[in-house]
Structure formats: C-alpha cells, structure tokens
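quick one, 178 residues, struct below
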Amino acid sequence: MLHTFQQLLATAAMERFTLMVNHVLAAETAAVQRLRPHTGRCIRLHMSGWPSPLPPVPELSFVVTPAGLLEWCGTGPAPAADLRVEVDASNPARLVAQGLVGQRPKVDVAGDATLATDVSWLMDNLRWDVQDDLARLVGPAVAHELARVGAALARGLREALGALSGAAARARAEPSVR
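---
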C-alpha cells in the first residue's frame, strides 16, 4: 500500500511540476519560440546520485508539444530520448536551495546539439516571475513587499549556504586531531 501511495504522490507531483514549468515557459514568448521547432522531440532528465533512503524519482521524460510547451510522458514507456540532461542529485537539499536562489545546478547534457543549445538557453534565461503571479492574487503593492521579503530570505539562504560550504571545505582541508 505504501508503494501505491508513493506512486500516486510522485505522479501528482510530476503533473504539478509540469504545469509549473509550462507556466514559466508560456510567460516568455522567446522560450516557446525556441521549443516549437523541436515538436515531438523527447528530453529525458536523469537525477544521478539520488539518495536511496528517499523515495525514487519517477521517470522524467518530456515531449515538446506543438505549442512549444512540455508534456510529461508519465510512468509508461517513453520515446527514445533526443536529449539527456543529467543533474547531480546526490544532495537534494542543496539542489532545492540552489533552485530557490536561482543558481543553475551542475548538469551534463548529451544528445542533439540544436536541442541542447535551446534547452541550455532556457536554463540560463528563464526565471519564474513570482511577483507578477502574486500581483494577480493580492495586488501589486502586497506582491512587491512579498517579493522584497522573499529576495531578502533568498540572500540569507545564499549567504548561509556559502558559509556552510566554506566551513565544510575548511573541515575537509584540516587534518583531524585525535
């Protein structure tokens, strides 16, 4: 029963993730224009080094639609990948923190060069305009304040991650005393 629940949860999460990615893509005309020529092509995202205690990540294969958006291939058999994007997921917390502060994770790309160029452009240039989306819900003034607070939290998180990373590097460099 736990396995079935995990499958249902993973499927729901992937469907929401796909909706969010398509929302960000659709907000930027240049993004959908870059993807439209790749209609029907398959992009496979592989999370390498995913820790085994965590529930497994579902198959992350997406097909480019004629609208220049992405369609998740689901849990069934996916078409052959035209592009494989491998993300270092050995530390999921760091991966999420990097995403929250707008840092691009370490990725390896293999496959069609033209599609790889366009996907790389998307990863470098697309950002979710949270303030714009919030303004539709709560008005521009409140959205601006929420975005300001969020930016301050992101800066703090970035600084904390930097300090933690520096401390970890120093700890590795210093010989242990016994």
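The first helix runs from residue 2 to 26.
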